[in-house]
Amino acid sequence: MNGLFGVPLSGMATESKRLAVSAQNVANLGSTGVRSESAEEDGYVPQRVLATAGPQGGVRGQTVPKSPPSVLLYDPDAPDADEEGVVARPNVQLEEEVVTQIQAQRAYEANVQVLETMDEMVGTLLDMDT
Predict the structure, then answer these.
(1) Is the previous residue joined to 79 through a cis bond, with omega within 30 degrees of 0?
(2) Rounded to whole angstroms, how far apart are CA atoms 42 and 33?
(3) What are the tens digits of pLDDT across the range 41-52?
(4) How far are the Cα atoms of 6, 47, 107, 121, 126 from residue 1, in angstroms, in the given order?
(5) % of the chain beyond a pLDDT of 90
(6) What are phi and psi of 21, to 5 degrees?
(7) Inter-helix orientation angle 2-27/94-129, to 10°
(8) Domain span including residue 83
(9) Which site among 16, 21, 55, 105 is 20 to 30 Å from 99 CA-CA?
């Protein structure tokens, strides 16, 4: 029976991770990005969460870097601009992150509802047994 409760709990954990990763992306929106994927530079690499099937059912959230990690923008006034006025910024779109956060919230709420319904069903089943 514990395995049944693991399904919505794993969904809740995955959506919590998705929300946290998205919030981190938004917080680093104006950070310096990396110039290339092969270079070892300091810079923020945005992440995303992939939901994969868990071994006992449910889902597992895996954090992976976004590809490409950065976009090049022309901003000659930026302090980190190169000699041509180009800066690397993380590949993060605010609109996309807001949608991701709303989806994560709704999916979390749905998993909470499943967990509450399962709890009520188990309670009713135990009441019938006595």
Answers:
(1) no
(2) 8
(3) 678 999 999 999
(4) 9, 34, 23, 12, 12
(5) 65
(6) -65, -40
(7) 160
(8) 2-129
(9) 55
The identity of residue 57, as a single letter, is G
The 10s digit of each residue's pLDDT in 62-71 is 999 999 999 9
Strands (E), 34-108: 47-53, 59-65, 70-74, 86-90
Q: Does residue 101 register a pLDDT over 50?
A: yes
Amino acid sitting at position 91:
N
Question: How does pLDDT run across 106-117, given as a tens digit for each residue?
Answer: 999 999 999 999
Which of 34, 22, 9, 43 is closest to 116 using CA atoms? 9
Number of domains observed in the structure of the chain: 1
Distances, alpha carbon 119 to alpha carbons 15, 23, 103, 110, 116, in Å: 20, 31, 24, 14, 5
pTM assigned to the model: 0.83
Task: Please identify which residue in the block is written with the tokens 């190169």.
Answer: 82
Tell me the one-letter amino acid at 56: Q
